[in-house]
Amino acid sequence: MITAERAVGAEDRVSPKRWFAVVAVAVGTFSVVTAEQLPVGLLTSIGHALGVSEGTAGLMVTVPGLVASATAPLLPVLIGRLDRRLVLLALITLMVAANVLSFAAPNFPVLVVSRFLVGISIGGFWSLAAGLAVRMVPERYVPRATTIAFGGATAANVLGVPAGTLIGGLTDWRIAFLSLAGLGLAVVAALVLLLPPLPATEPVRLRALPEQFRNPVVRTGVLATGLLVGGHMAAFTFISPILQNVSGIGEKAVGPLLLAFGAAGIVGTFVTGALAGRRVRTAIITVSLALAAILALFPLAGGTVYGGVALLIVWGLAFGGVPVSVQTWILKAAPGATEPATALNTSMFNLAIALGALSGGVIVDQVSTTAVLWTGAALSALTSLTILRTRPA
């Protein structure tokens, strides 16, 4: 298992300050992942304001996802032995600057540049944060620390977009970006006060990345991330038309329902995190089968308002367990190489977001929203077969 940093002492106790530091990392994760997906609910207003189509405005989501997928595996190599605390602070500061640039962008090309910078922040912060959170607690608390750290990502995936959309609707889309920059400043202050120095235990070498991918257990975890996140995003990107066209839910009800989805996702993170700490294989299989069943049933049982709402809540509960379960698998698979293994997994997570949304759009345009739900179900079911073929470390 991971060798926890022994600044916490030999005792099996953790000071409140250390737990607050883990929470600060979680809020940092929330802020960078929210930054990635913030434009989703603002595409129409941004497109109108800057004179571009909604399809072109969608580059604001695709660009940071692709950049993050490249940054995640490369940044741990480039930073060498730099103190990880300083790197995290620099990455959050970059996210703040990028969102200020988005707020002030006079045209769409400048806005895309700001989104490129956001991608660097996302990939770097997430790839480091997942491994560093566990260094601040003894081994027995690692599953709990991982759950808290990834609770921020889960909350961002499902709460960040509705919150940003609400702020943009009540004020202006630029204010949504500025508000996120303000949250980033608060995270910087918290990390300065709470996070201890985190020197690199060993610099990550470029060769460590393909070495980890040759590890069959790590490779299976990365593949599971791609299948689960890609399948989810292919369908979830179009959750608004799905709820309206399949379930007959009014447009104004979509935002509040997404908040309920998010609350269910947070619950799912903690429930699955507790299971993953003991039986990680069971946790991933349970989550993947649940997602496959929900997405496959949605066109059939989600054809009413009540059916659609019920399935949406269960969908949130199931997806909430994805980040923490696959990351726990990765940490168990590579106890002596957490940074390169986590970087590979983070790269796949962000690539799956970008490609899942892109492929989902093609399926919706060429076939139907029902087809994209069944596609997501098939990818989720395939995850179970992948996990069953590999024994966890």
Structure explained in plain terms:
The chain has helices spanning 16-37, 43-50, 54-57, 59-78, 84-104, 108-133, 142-170, 173-194, 208-214, 216-236, 239-245, 251-278, 280-301, 305-319, 322-333, 338-366, 369-388. By secondary structure, it is an all-alpha fold. The chain folds into two domains: 1-204, Growth Hormone, Chain: A (Up-down Bundle); 205-393, MFS general substrate transporter like domains (Growth Hormone, Chain: A). It starts with 15 loop residues before the first helix and ends in a 5-residue tail after the last helix. The relative contact order is 0.15. Mean pLDDT is 82; it is low at 1-11. It is a multi-pass membrane protein. Pfam families: MFS_1. Residues 21-393 form the Major facilitator superfamily (MFS) profile domain. The chain crosses the membrane at residues 59-79, 86-106, 112-134, 146-167, 173-196, 217-243, 255-276, 283-302, 308-331, 343-364, 370-388.
Specify the overall morphology: globular
Order of helices and strands: HHHHHHHHHHHHHHHHH
User: Main beta sheet, described?
Assistant: none
What is the strand tally? Answer: 0
CATH homologous superfamily label of the largest domain: MFS general substrate transporter like domains
> Which percent range describes the beta-strand content?
under 5%
**Oligomeric state of shown chains:** single chain
Number of helices: 17
Low-pLDDT windows of residues:
1-11
CATH classification class of the largest domain: Mainly Alpha
**What is the share of helical residues?**
over 70%
Radius of gyration: 20 Å
- Chain-averaged pLDDT: 82
CATH topology of the largest domain, by name, is: Growth Hormone, Chain: A
Q: Which CATH-level-2 architecture of the largest domain?
A: Up-down Bundle
Could you say how many structural domains there are in total? 2
Transmembrane segments: 59-79, 86-106, 112-134, 146-167, 173-196, 217-243, 255-276, 283-302, 308-331, 343-364, 370-388
Organism: Actinomadura yumaensis
Subcellular location: Cell membrane
Domain Major facilitator superfamily (MFS) profile: 21-393
